[in-house]
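Supplementary notes for students who missed Thursday's class. We covered one full example, reproduced here. Read the sequence, then the structure, then the short commentary at the end.
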Amino acid sequence: MWDYYTDKSILITGASGFLGTAITHRKLIKKWQRNLPEWDSHWLLNLESITVIDGDIMKTDLGISQETVAGLQKEVDIIIHAASTINLTYSLERVFDHIVQPSESLAQMALGFTSLDRFVYVSTAFANTHLYKLSSKPQTEINEEIYPLLGEGKLLDDSLLSAQDARDQIMKTGSSTEFEVHDFPWPYAYGKHLAERLILNLFIEKGWASKVLILRPSVVGPAERYPYPGYSVPLSTPSTALATAMIASPVFSVVVPTRCSKPEMEATIDEVPVDVVVDRMLAHVALDTTGCVHAVGGERGRLSFMDFWGAAMKLRRLPWEPRIIWSSTVDWHSPDLHPVLRLYVILGTAFLFTEEKTNKLWQMLSPDERDCLQSELSFQRGYWFICVAEQREFWYTMSSSIILF
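Structure (token representation):
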């Protein structure tokens, strides 16, 4: 599997961010540690195998010179588009400017890369969370596919074609009909859904659909092993941010929307370590997986609400624990929600993200490949509790104007 990457040139957007740093570190470490002693591999990480380009995905051609673009078009084999805001407070207009337009522009640019073998778009497993409101079941199952909008029964091609109309509507009015019709928890989720469709449509028109991999991580958490246990970037790991905010909050009760009959056990949080996300991506790219792929905790890796809440409350210094008020009538856009939970509105839900492609891939790997990958489904579920404990001190020293009450 690792031989696939020999002599491959990889362009990573967002390489200095949380996920991008983990991708870069993992790829280089694997390359050098295969053949060299540990001491030698460390200093080789600083050699000319890395080229840093100071670009801006919100600008035309990444804001770089035409000479640099021409060089990339000839040399790059793999593009990994990991640059993205994860700000759940952004309006649809800001999401469009920061996620949708830059992603479509990069995909358009990629069509001119003569050596391009793979285009990886890092989306989110929550791009289809609108499905929650279309069902009455406690658990919402989401498969590794594109879900059409604007009614049921439409063909996949119809959905892809409507993406351009939605894009044009947003450019003119700041919103789209399909966004207004479907109840997404945040504009961020819809923005990722739209970006997926726009990218796929471009590559389908070019006849390059087989080159596209859409990676859908769930809640990305601190690393389990690489670059080091607990590796994180402040405010880039939503579950630990949520836990630490609630640990420090002086409220006596919080309202949590749910339709679960036993939400303490049925409501779940699907979080996956960043290095698991990276390894699954690298494996799927190398073994030629196409289309949408979930990188998630899945059925065996999810945390129940009580696992999450109980672990967080053990770290709480205040002498009382907030009482959970479960509500089947409060909407996830309601002003009655605690300010923190207006962001983390899916806390009382249960999503099952299927993983057929990763299960199939796992069977294709050799024993040696399995040993060096983090792709196995049974990663340590409790790894993030340590990270919450470490971040708790940060929240206790923050000013009251930053901790939301």
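Commentary. The radius of gyration is 21 Å. Residues 2 and 98 are 33 Å apart (CA to CA). If anything here is unclear, bring it to office hours.
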